[in-house]
Amino acid sequence: MKTILVTGGAGFIGSHFVRHILKSYEDYRVVNLDKLTYAGNPENLRDVEGDPRYAFVQGDICNSELVNHLAQRTDMVVNFAAESHVDRSIMGAEAFMHSNALGVYTLLDAARRHGVERFLQVSTDEVYGSLEEGEAPWTEEVCLDPRNPYSVAKASGDMMARAFAVTYGLPVVVTRASNNIGSFQYPEKRVPLFITNAIDDLPLPVYGQGGAVRDHLYVTDHCEAIDLVLHRGAAGEVYNVGGENEANGVEVTRKILNLLEKPEDLIQYVKDRLGHDMRYSLDSSKVKALGWTPKHDFENALRLTVEWYAANEAWWRKIKKSSGYRMYYQKQYGGR
Ligand code: NAD
Ligand code: TYD
Fold first, then answer.
1. Can 150 be counted among the known catalytic residues?
2. Is 334 exposed, middle or buried (CB count within 10 Å of its CB: 0-12, 13-18, 19+)?
């Protein structure tokens, strides 16, 4: 048996990855270390709770004692744990520096001390900065140019991972993916927020003129790429994971409204995000050369996502009714 320490496994992408590993490898055990912040939700993994190959530990990746204890019995680490929402990082970035920078260091150090055979740091295209229309997609060679508190904290984690690979020869790999969509995504990110607002006939707050472009990746395609890089990626290397599904804010919003058969007058243009990155675009040839291809195009990915939120209202209504969510929503959108 091999043991993978998955951190942040109670969040959106991490929960899909835990499920993917348990389904794909009979001889793997998964230990899920998650602090259960506002974004961590044990309901995301109800279906695997009884699996004898799965264990949950509530705790912080910055807790060196706990992380060292777990690393003693760990073959591979996959780090999803992070503060993940740009708008929250603009309100205040302390938790982002804690989890996305110091947390990565704490995990890397424990992995080095205990001779972990693979460490995969899950990162984001946002560390590359912002592209203009017409500029070529980013390859892994371009310099990092993060521009908001979230992406700067993530870039710090990436740089520390690189330091451990170069300095200590720790077998680290890094993946940088574009915007994920799919089930179990906390409804603060654009796609699940707009789907759930539209179901309730509430306004969809589009920032600025809705011109910012994002690439979209279906969450299970992302998990397959992480699995591949974990097992076949070259130590010390970075792999971009994009869906080749670029769309701007207006296009994404219209598609969501069309799928739900809701009117376009739900669109409400609001004050733009501070320092809004205008375009992300990835060249994913390197991970494709390992044998990965995304199985979902944007239409398919978005349709499956809309269908899941329509069929699982209990999951998101509980979140949206909570006082924490309501306070955040008021703070973020109240004055816009
Ligand atoms: P998420 O916010 O849904 O989940 C994050 C999880 O990490 C939560 O379960 C939370 O409780 C946990 N966590 C946070 N801080 C922790 C800490 N200090 N110790 C232990 N657990 C902690 O995030 P997500 O969207 O699933 O993203 C997962 C990872 O993928 C992040 O590292 C993010 O930067 C990266 N990523 C996300 C996207 C995306 O589109 N969502 C794209 C590229 C990369
Ligand atoms: P988001 O889902 O927060 O992901 P990220 O900023 O990490 O790419 O935002 C995606 C895009 O949608 C981004 O251009 C900002 C925009 N956006 C809105 O227009 N309105 C919103 O309410 C949110 C949350 C995002």
1. yes
2. exposed
